[in-house]
């Protein structure tokens, strides 16, 4: 029986003329992209022949891909691999988070994790889409300072939101401060910017 595979990356485009591809990395498990590692590319088994970081992505070459034409055929394909036992690590796979209840510090139910929305790597975090009981959704930044996975009294996992920022659940609750607040007329430069 083949173990369930998890997505570890997505091929963005070919790089150069020797079969390398640029990959958006979706896993922080060490060694996932080392040369000699077997992965699946679009459902087909492949061995990573070489790997190197490049501008926030990984450049990979596979054993069966030797030119740009072959690499172009891989554009948009997902890289998958068997899950790794993360033990007591604070890292979770997306499928482990989807379906978890989301609660605030007061144990109020805020909804259930419905999906992960991947942001560009430059953002430094992704978003969790949280579905409320009334069918509406809201977005929760998946950052360590704001959320953590913990066990409830029965041993089930839940996502705890710490120090819920104003306006995160309901944007109408957010305090909007104009950038020119507190500037008196005449305190601007000739171009209108504050002094």
Account of the 3D structure:
It is a single chain. The chain has 2 helices and 12 strands. The strands form 2 sheets. Strands 1-2-5-4-3-6 form a 6-stranded antiparallel β-barrel. A 6-stranded mixed β-sheet has the order 10-9-8-7-12-11, with no helix packed on it. A hairpin with a 4-residue loop joins β1 and β2. The chain folds into 2 domains: 6-81, RimM (Elongation Factor Tu (Ef-tu), domain 3); 94-173, Alpha-Beta Complex (Photosynthetic Reaction Center, Chain H, domain 2). The longest helix has 5 residues, at 68-72. It is elongated and about 55 Å long. The protein is mainly beta and 195 residues long.
Which labels suit this protein?
2 domains, elongated, 2 helices, single chain, 37% strand, six-stranded antiparallel beta barrel, six-stranded mixed beta sheet, Elongation Factor Tu (Ef-tu), domain 3, 12 strands, mainly beta, 195 residues, Photosynthetic Reaction Center, Chain H, domain 2
Please work out how many helical segments DSSP would assign.
2
Number of domains: 2
**What's the order of the H and E elements?**
EEEEEHEHEEEEEE
CATH architecture classification of the largest domain: Alpha-Beta Complex
| Fourth-level CATH superfamily of the largest domain | Photosynthetic Reaction Center, subunit H, domain 2
- Beta-strand content estimate: 35-45%
Largest sheet report:
6 strands, antiparallel, barrel
**Overall 3D shape:** elongated
Uncertain residue segments:
none
Might you state the CATH topology name of the largest domain?
A: Photosynthetic Reaction Center, Chain H, domain 2
Alpha carbon gap, first and last residue? 69 Å
Please state how the strands of the largest beta sheet are arranged side by side: 1-2-5-4-3-6
Question: Mean pLDDT, as a whole number?
Answer: 81
Q: What structural category characterises the helix and strand content?
A: mainly beta
Radius of gyration based on Cα positions: 22 Å
What percent of residues adopt helix (DSSP H or I)?
Answer: under 10%
CATH class group of the largest domain: Alpha Beta
Q: What is the β-strand count?
A: 12
């Amino acid at each position: 029986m083949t173990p369930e595979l998890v997505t570890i990356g997505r091929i963005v485009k070919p790089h150069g003329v020797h079969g390398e591809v640029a990959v958006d990395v979706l896993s922080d498990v060490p060694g996932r992209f080392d040369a000699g590692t077997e992965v699946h590319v679009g459902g087909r088994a492949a061995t990573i022949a070489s790997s190197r970081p490049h501008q926030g992505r990984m450049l990979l070459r596979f054993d069966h891909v030797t030119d740009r034409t072959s690499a172009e055929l891989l554009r948009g394909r997902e890289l998958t691999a068997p899950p790794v036992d993360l033990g007591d690590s604070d890292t979770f796979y997306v499928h482990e988070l989807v379906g978890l209840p989301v609660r605030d510090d007061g144990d109020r139910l805020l909804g259930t994790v419905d999906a992960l929305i991947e942001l560009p790597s430059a953002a430094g975090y992704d978003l969790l889409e949280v579905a409320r009981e009334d069918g509406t959704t809201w977005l929760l930044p998946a950052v360590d300072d704001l959320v953590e996975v913990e066990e409830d009294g029965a041993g089930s996992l839940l996502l705890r939101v710490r120090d819920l920022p104003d306006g995160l659940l309901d944007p109408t609750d957010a305090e909007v401060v104009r950038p020119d607040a507190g500037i008196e007329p005449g305190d601007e430069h000739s171009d209108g910017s504050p002094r």
